[in-house]
From TrEMBL:
SUPFAM superfamilies tied to this protein: Single hybrid motif
Originating gene: yknX_1
Compartments in which it is found: Cell envelope
Residue ranges annotated for the CzcB-like barrel-sandwich hybrid domain, each copy included: 58-248
Protein name: Putative efflux system component YknX
Organism in which the protein naturally occurs: Thermotalea metallivorans
Amino acid sequence: MKRKKLWLVLAILGVIGIAYFAIGRNQRLEVETFPVEKGKLEKYIEEVGIVKMEQQTTIYASEGGKVAEILVQVGDQVKAGDILAKLNEKELSIQLEGLKAEKEAAMAQYQEALKPSDGQVVRKMQAAVKSATVSYEEAKRAADNSRRLYEEGAVSYETYRSALANLHLQEAALESAKSDLEMVEKGISTQQRKQYEARISQIQSQIDLLYQKKENLIIRAPREGMVMAKAIETGTYIQPGMALFEIGNRDDLYIESDILIREIGEVTEGAPVVIWSDDLGIKDLKGVVRKIYPKAFSKISDLGIEQKRVKIEIDFSEAGKGGKLKPDYEVDIRIITQIKPEVLWIPENAVFEYEGNHAVFVNQKGTAVLRKIEKGIESGERVEIVKGLQQGEEVILSPNEKIKQGIQIQKKNE
C-alpha cells in the first residue's frame, strides 16, 4: 500500500514538472534574431542625378527681328556653319541702300571740291565780293544816318533797329563772299579735306555695321552636333539675347548631381559611383566622380527648406552612352565613399542608445544579455561592429521596451 502511494506521488510530481516547464516555455518572450556576419561593407551617399550633354551649346540671337525661315528641326544633325534659320532683312536692306547713296553724294562733293577753279569762276567770285562790299557800305551809311535821326527823335527805335539788322546781314554776306573767293583762289584746305574724309569714313562705318547686322540675321550652327531644342517658329518676333537653338552630342553624356554640403567632405574625385533607374530598367551602371565644383550654392528642397549644396560631375561607362540614358533624364546614384572588405556587421535595427553608448541585446542561451558595442561605418541598413561582438553571436532585432537584461527569450518559429 505504501509503495503504491509513493508511485502516485512521483507521478503527480512528474506531471507538475512537465506542466511547469511547458508554462515557463510559453512565458518566454518571442524575438527575432540575426547572427553577426562578416563581409564587405560600403559606405555611400545616395542622391538624384541629371543626365547632361558634353559641350552643349545654346545659340542666342544677336539681332532682333521676325523669323523669316527655319531650315532645321529637332533631331537634325548639323555641321559647323550650317544655316539654322533666317530673319527678315528687308528693313536693313533699305537702310543700306540709303547709306550707299549718301556715301556716293559725299564722295561727289569731295571730288568736286578737289577740282582746281578756272578763271571765270574766280572772276565771278571777285565780282560777288565787290557787290557785297558795296551793299555793306551802303548799309553802314544807312545805319549811321538812322542812328543820328533816332538820337534827334526824328525816327523810331524800330526803324533804327531794322537798319542795324540789315548792316549785320550785309556784313555776314561780305564775309561769306570773301571766304568763297579765298577757297576758290587757294583750293580746298587741309581742314576741309579732313572734314570730307571723316564724313565719308563715318558713312562707311555705318554701312559696315549694317552688313554685320545683316549677316547676324542668318543663324548658323557654331559646331557639329544634333539640334536638341528649338525655341522659335516661322513668324516669331525675337529680341537680342533670346535663346533660339540648343546643339549637342546626345551620345557624349555625363551626370550632374547636387550633394549636401555636410556630405561633400566624404566625396573625392575618382570615387566609384553606382547608377540605376527603376523607371528605365537600368541596374548597377558603373561611374566615377570626375569633378567637384569649388563653390557651394543655395537650393530649396521639396519641403521648402533652404540647403547648401555642391555640384559634382560623374562620368559613366560607355555601356550607358547611346543606350537608354538621354539628356535631362533623371537617375539615382550611389557614391561609394568608403569600402571595407572583411568586417563584422549586423542589421541597423538591432542597435539602440543606452547610457550614451551604442548597445544591443545578445541571445545567450535563451536569455537576453545587454552588450555595449562600438560601431564603425554604416552601409544602408547594415552597421559595422568594431568592438563588442563576435561572428556567429545572435543579436535581437528591433528590441522593444519589453526586452530587459536577463529576460527569457525564444526565437520565432522555434
